[in-house]
Amino acid sequence: MQARILFAAFCAVLLLNGITAAQDGIGIFDTHGNLGVTPKPGSIEFNPAAREYRVTGGGANIWGTQDAGYFAWKRISGDVTITADVRFEGAGANAHRKAVLMIRQELTPESVYADVALHGDGLTALQFRPRAFGETQEIRSTVNAPTRIRIERRGNQFTIYAGKPGAELTSTGPQTVQLNDPVYAGIGVCSHDANVLETAVFSNVQIEQPAQRTQQRFRSKITVYDLAARSTSTVYQADEVIEAPNWSRDGSFLLVNTGGNLYRLPVNAPGERRLEKVDLGDAGYRCNNDHDFSWDGKLLAFSASSPSSRQSQVYMARADGAGAKLMTPAAPSYFHGWSPDGKWLAFVGQREGKFAIFRVAATGGPEQRLTWKGAYDDGPEYSRDGKWIYFNSNRSGGWDIWRMPADGAGPNDEKAERVTNDELEDWFPHFSPDGKWMLILSFPKGTPGHNDRMEGMTLRIMPAPGDTLQPARIETLTKFFGGQGTINVNSWSPDSKKFAYVVYEPLPR
After folding, report:
1. Looking at the predicted structure, is the pLDDT value of residue 343 above 50?
2. What ranges do the domains of the chain cover?
3. What is the CB-side half-sphere exposure of residue 463 using CA atoms within 13 A?
4. What is the pLDDT of residue 414?
5. SS3 at position 7
6. Mean per-residue pLDDT, 361-373
7. What is the percent of the chain where pLDDT is above 70?
8. Which residues are CB-neighbours of 155 under 8 A, at least 6 positions away?
9. Do 40 and 194 touch, CB atoms closer than 8 A?
10. C or N terminus of the chain, fewer CB within 10 Å?
C-alpha cells in the first residue's frame, strides 16, 4: 500500500512537470512516458532477445521553445555517451518526424537540452536549447540518413556522431550547453504532427560513462602581492576551494566565494582571520566567482544560480548583501565589472550558442549587447576613465586582451582593438584604482579555456593603455599553481599598492 502511494505521488510530480510516466523501467531505462502535449499518447516495447526498443511517439515537435514526444530515460550524473542504431517504421506522415538520443536538464517541455536528431528525410543534427523557454538551435551533420548515431557529453560540451555500424562515425560539434547534474539521458520519438503517431526502432543501445575518478581536492591560499616590494604573503588558507577575492573600498576586508556563498575576510584586524558569511537573504542563491563592489562602495553585484534558474544570472544588492534584485533575466549571465560612475554593470552572457559582452543599467532595464563577432568573449572590465571596456577573446585564434568603446564595438565589431598579442593565453584584465596599471592573468600557451587549475599560471602587469594603443612591455610578476577562481574579478587594494589572488595546492586523493 505504501509503495503504491509513493508511486502515485511520483506520477503526480511528473505530470506537474510536463511528462506522464509509465509505472516501471524497461530494458536499461529507469522510466518512460509522454513528454509535453501529446494528444495521441505514445508507447515503448522492448524485445530482450533482439535488444531492441520499439518507440512510438506523437507530439508537434522537439524544437522551438517546447518539446513534445515520447521519451525513455535514465537519471545520470557526469560525462555520458549514448549510441544506438536507429531505423524508422513505415513511410511516415511527415518528413520531419524525429528519432533522438537526448540529454535533458528537466522533464518539463521547455527544458534545456541537447540531442542528436535523426529526421525521417535523413537530416541529422545536433539540436540544443541553451536556456529554458529559449529557442532551439541546431548544427547540422554532413551525414544524411545514418543508421548509427551517438551523442557525447563531456562536461558542458556536447558532440554528435553519425554514420554506419562498423565504420568510423563523423562528428559534429562540440557545442556548449550548461546542464547541472543529475540529468535525464535516453531515447525518444516525435511524430512532428500531433494528430499521428510515428515509430522508430532503436537497437544496440548503449549508455556508457567513463570511469569516475576521485575528485581532486585543493588547498586555497589567499595571497596578497605587494607591488613595490615585488613580494607575496599568504593571509588565509583552507583545505577547500576559495575563489575571486575583491578588496573592499575601505581596504578592511576581502570578499570571496566558497561553497556557493559569499564571505568577508578581514585583513586589517589583529588575531586569527576567519571567514564571515555575507547574508544574502533566504532566496537560495548559489554564488559563483563573479562579484564586486561598485567603485563608491555602496552596492554589490554578484552572479549566482538559484531555485528559479539553474544557470547563472546577475544580481545587485546593497554592499552588505541586503535587498538583492535580479538584473539579467536571460541566462547564463556572469557579472564582471562596474563602470566608474556606477551607472552600468558589464557582464558576459551566452546567447545563440556564443559568449558575448553585454551591459545593463544599474537602475534596471534591458540588456545591451556590445560584441557580436567573437567566438568567445569574456571578462569585461571598464578602464578607470570609463572610456573603454577591456575583455579577453579567442577571436584571433589564441586568447588575447581586446578593448572597445564603452558603448560597444559596433554591429561588426569594427571598433574592437587587440591589446595583447603573444604566446600566452591572456584573461581577465584588471585596472588599478589609480588608473596606472593593467593586471592580466595568463594561462600557458595552448590552454583552450579557463575552467581548470594547473601549474604555470602567470600574473603579468603592464601600463594602462592610453586612447591610442602603443607597444608596451608586459612584466611577469609571479608564476604559481592556479586557474579558475584565482582572480576572476578586480582585486586591487584601494591604494593601488597591492592586489589579492588565490594560489591552489592539490591535496592527496
Report:
1. yes
2. 2-208, 220-506
3. 9
4. 96
5. helix
6. 96
7. 95
8. 79, 451
9. yes
10. N
**What is the maximum alpha-carbon separation in the chain?**
79
Q: How many CA atoms lie within 13 A of 122 on its CB side?
A: 6
> If 0-12 CB within 10 Å is exposed, 13-18 middle and 19+ buried, where does residue 274 land?
exposed
Q: How many CA atoms lie within 13 A of 200 on its CB side?
A: 30
Alpha-carbon distance of 470 to 18, in angstroms, equals: 58
- In which residue are the cell numbers 530515460 written? 73
Assigned architecture for domain 2-208: Sandwich (2.60)
Q: Which residues of 469-483 are buried (b: 16+ CB within 10 A; e: fewer)?
A: eeeeebeeebebbbb
Among the residues of 332-480, which ranges form H helices?
none
State the virtual CA torsion across 483, 488, 490, 493 in degrees, nearest 10.
-40
| Alpha-carbon separation of residue 428 from 392, 425, 438, 483 (angstroms) | 6, 10, 10, 11
Residue of 334, 346, 359, 246 lying closest to 293 (CA atoms): 246
CB atoms within 10 A of CB 327: 22
The CA distance from 126 to 286, in Å, is 30
Closest Cα partner for 399 from 382, 416, 417, 418?
Answer: 418
SS (H, E, C) 12-72: HHHHHCCEEECCCCECCECEEEEECCCCCCCEEEEECCCCEEEEEECCCCEECCEECEEEE
pLDDT on residue 24: 59
Query: How distant is the alpha carbon of residue 439 from its chain centre?
Result: 25
DSSP code of residue 2: H
**What is the predicted pLDDT for the residue at 310?**
79
Cell digits for 425? Answer: 593565453
Q: Are the beta carbons of 57 and 32 closer than 8 angstroms?
A: no
CB neighbour burial string for 78-95, b if at least 16 within 10 angstroms, e if fewer: eebbbbbbbebeeebebe
- 14 pLDDT above the threshold of 70: no
Could you tell me which of 384, 391, 385 has the C-alpha nearest to residue 359? 391
What is the predicted pLDDT for the residue at 311?
A: 86
